[in-house]
TrEMBL record:
The lineage of its organism: Bacteria, Pseudomonadati, Pseudomonadota, Gammaproteobacteria, Pasteurellales. NCBIfam families: OxoTetrKin. It catalyses: 3-dehydro-D-erythronate + ATP = 3-dehydro-4-O-phospho-D-erythronate + ADP + H(+); 3-dehydro-L-erythronate + ATP = 3-dehydro-4-O-phospho-L-erythronate + ADP + H(+). The keyword Lipid metabolism does not apply. It comes from Chelonobacter oris. Residues 2-226 form the Four-carbon acid sugar kinase N-terminal domain. It holds the Pfam family NBD_C. Gene3D superfamilies: Four-carbon acid sugar kinase, nucleotide binding domain, Putative sugar-binding, N-terminal domain. This is 3-oxo-tetronate kinase. One of its GO terms (molecular function) is ATP binding.
Length: 416
């Protein structure tokens, strides 16, 4: 069984959806479960909110998760981080990878954020988003983890204990056996991690074969999809594309991402639905603010499209807000308002929640208190509908840059 440790909740649903799409029965649990695994599955994905925590906290949470996965029958492990390698110079990708490698007593792993279907590719060890380098893609303006470099070897070396080598495109296209030889050479030269080029899915399929016996694999959801396809070939009877979908019921859109794509999605959705901007100053200073937003949302629950509360702003406005209130202060206040609002709305009876942004989605799900999810139909690559395990509540946790411009409306057009 494959055990996945995901550093945020949107990332967890991203990888879980690709595992399911490629034939592995999968359950997604929110945080380290208090009890043993209840069902027989091929993969367990555990969502953490550890991407931007202090390093020691992220390491400890990840080790606790590994421990639970080991005690529940997992034999191979995947550390899922963002396809845009979201992290600070201190971590957490490097330190968590090192801690997991030490705990698993393994001395080599791969670094593979590539997700070609969503435009994340790697060439000569540089990470691209579409046709631009990561650090020119808008990710340099990220509110919490601004990405100022696109060179994955440099990024990893800055935060990890060991050295990072490269298996370049020309080697990858020679096939899985050759890639394995490249790994051996890198190990002999003292490298502990290999960035592997992937400009399209063909290289991910090669890599999935080459790492079949690795105890620990790290990356985005792209490689995991091909690992699942590779594994499920042996058990084709398990291939089961899911059709789980929400019914038309009270719904809300909560957008806390400031990514380039979320900005476009929010603008597009404003032309269709009632919308209200979440004001940071009010969040910080008005103790009744979440209640006021709640009242506004319930007044619009019978509209054709779900009302949207959004903190989303373009880069210049974000800079001004962060200068005025401090980046951490602003983002904590916003996250906490979204969390309180979501809790009130669930209590009121809202059944479908569409949230944008990894940190935002993580805090909302934690506050709503679900143990875990069944994975439903994909709305866009990497964004499935999720059904809470013991309740008729559905969530769509959208990673910042995923989905097309019409995502919010399209997700609701799927209601049955
Ligand atoms: N108007 C704003 N001013 C300041 N901070 C904001 C504002 N809007 C959102 N934020 C903060 O920015 C952060 C956005 O991170 P989040 O992970 O939710 O989105 P994302 O990074 O685009 O998504 P992903 O991690 O899935 O790519 C959150 O902490 C949020 O509270
Ligand atoms: O890999 C991605 O891009 C997403 O799953 C994610 O982690 C965004 O938070």
């Amino acid at each position: 069984m494959l055990g996945v440790i995901a550093d945020d909740f949107t990332g967890a649903s991203d990888i879980a959806s690709f595992l399911v799409e490629n034939g592995l029965s999968t359950v997604q649990m929110n945080g380290v479960p208090k009890r043993r695994l209840q069902s027989a599955v091929d993969a367990v994905v555990i969502s953490l909110k550890s991407r931007s925590n202090p390093v020691e906290e992220a390491v400890q949470q990840s080790l606790n998760t590994l421990n639970w996965l080991q005690h529940n029958g997992c034999t191979q492990f995947y550390f899922k981080y963002c396809s845009t390698f979201d992290s600070t110079a201190n971590g957490n990708i490097g330190p968590v990878t090192d801690a997991l490698m030490n705990a698993l007593d393994t001395d080599f792993t791969v670094i593979t954020p590539a997700l070609p279907i969503n435009g994340r590719t790697i060439f000569n060890g540089y990470l691209f988003v579409g046709q631009t380098l990561l650090n020119e893609s808008g990710m340099q303006n990220h509110p919490i983890t601004p990405m100022k470099d696109a060179n994955l070897m440099r990024l990893m070396d800055a935060q990890a204990d060991g050295k990072t080598g490269l298996v370049g495109y020309a080697d990858v296209i020679r096939g899985a056996d050759h890639v394995k030889c490249c790994f051996d050479q890198l190990k002999q030269q003292g490298y502990r991690y290999a960035v592997v080029d992937a400009v399209d899915n063909v290289q991910l399929a090669v890599l999935a074969k080459a790492i079949d016996d690795f105890k620990l694999v790290t990356g985005g959801s792209g490689l995991a999809a091909y690992m699942a396809a590779h594994k499920s070939k042996n058990t084709p009877q398990k291939t089961q594309k899911t059709a789980l979908l929400p019914t038309k019921a009270d719904s809300v859109v909560l957008s806390g991402s400031c990514s380039v794509m979320t900005n476009k999605q929010v603008e597009a959705y404003k032309t269709k639905a009632a919308h209200k901007w979440l004001d940071v100053e009010q969040s910080l200073n008005n103790p009744n603010y979440a209640d006021e937003l709640y009242q506004w949302v319930i007044e619009h629950l019978n509209d054709d499209y779900a009302p949207m509360v959004y903190a989303t702003v373009p880069p210049q406005k974000l800079k001004e807000i962060q200068q005025q209130f401090g980046a951490d202060n602003a983002s904590h206040a916003i996250e906490s308002t979204f969390a309180t609002l979501a809790k009130k709305l669930k209590r009121y009876g809202v059944k479908n929640f569409i949230t944008a942004g990894g940190e935002t989605s993580s805090i909302v799900v934690q506050e709503l208190g679900f143990d875990g999810f069944q994975i439903g139909k994909q709305i866009a690559p990497g964004v499935p509908w999720l059904k809470a395990l013991d309740e008729e509540v559905f969530l769509a946790l959208k990673s910042g840059n995923f989905g097309s411009e019409t995502f919010f409306a399209y997700a609701q057009e799927m209601f049955v």
